[in-house]
Amino acid sequence: MKQNLRIAILITLVTTVIFGLIYPLAVTGLAQLLFPGQANGSLIVKNGQVVGSQLLGQTFSSPGYFHSRPSYAGTGYDASQSSGSNLGPTNHQLFDRVQGDVAKLHAENPAAPIPVDLVTASASGLDPEISPAAAEFQIARVARERNMPASDVRSLVAKHTLGRQFGFLGEPRVRVLELNLDLDASHREK
Predict the structure, then answer these.
(1) How many Å apart are CA 34 and CA 40, to the nearest integer?
(2) pLDDT of residue 121
(3) Are residues 174 and 134 in contact, defined by beta-carbon separation less than 8 angstroms?
(4) Given this model, what pLDDT does residue 11 score?
(5) For residues 185 and 51, is the Cβ–Cβ distance under 8 A?
(6) What is the Cα 78 distance to its own chain's centre?
(7) Alpha carbon distance 123, 118 (integer Å)
(8) Is the pLDDT assigned to residue 190 strictly greater than 60?
(9) Which pLDDT does position 94 carry in this prediction?
(10) Which letter, b or e, does each residue of 121-139 get, where b requires 16 or more Cβ atoms within 10 Å of its Cβ?
(11) Per-residue b or e along 66-96, where b marks 16 or more CB atoms closer than 10 Å to that residue's CB
(12) What is the mean pLDDT of residues 163-180?
């Protein structure tokens, strides 16, 4: 009995050291060595200051910026409270919010169909990207607010549009934070 207890304790200690200390430190070290940007959160630094991450969306409410998808994460894009609204399709709160967003978007661009990702939140509430259709919908407003040609804004959108991963996975998408930072660098808001 004592022999079995001693072996069990020894195995517990050895596996704790291997899988609780050595392995995590080795993986962290390799990640820092091979992929330092990703290992540190894919942070975006501007003028020596962290302004965001490529992985997390941010709220942009000014009309001179491209707007992200709606977010229910805390008060909006709060990474510590990542979640969807969990409101079902027949829920009146969801219906009223979507109806209000649709009315606001129709006022902004009456002739264009509204892309679904401008009125629906994701499951995480932290999406950093929108569809190219959602970006195209917003080009006229951003160009007007920044007093720049729509073709210049469209070029910036194209520059920040990512294709399908490996050419076949996912959908094309536009990184909103990087696009807005590039807009600020080239044409300040009025």
Answers:
(1) 12
(2) 81
(3) yes
(4) 96
(5) no
(6) 11
(7) 14
(8) no
(9) 84
(10) bbebbbbbbbbbbbbbbbb
(11) bbbbbbbbeebbbeeebeebeeeeeeeebee
(12) 92
pLDDT, one tens digit per residue, over 13-45 is 999 999 999 999 999 999 999 999 888 888 888
The CA–CA distances, whole Å, from 131 to 41, 84, 134 equal 23, 19, 5
Residue corresponding to tokens 């009315």:
103
Helix, strand or coil for residue 44? strand
Give the pLDDT score at 17: 96
Question: In the prediction, which pLDDT does 189 show?
Answer: 59
Q: With pLDDT > 70 as the criterion, what percentage of the chain qualifies?
A: 97
DSSP secondary structure of 121-182:
--SSS---EE-HHHHHHHHHHHHHHHT--HHHHHHHHHHTEE--BTTTBS--EEEHHHHHHH
Question: Within a 13 Å sphere around the CA of 33, how many CA atoms are in the beta-carbon half?
Answer: 6
What's the confidence (pLDDT) of residue 65?
93
Q: Which DSSP helix (H) or strand (E) runs through 43?
A: strand 43-46
How long a stretch of residues is the chain? Answer: 190
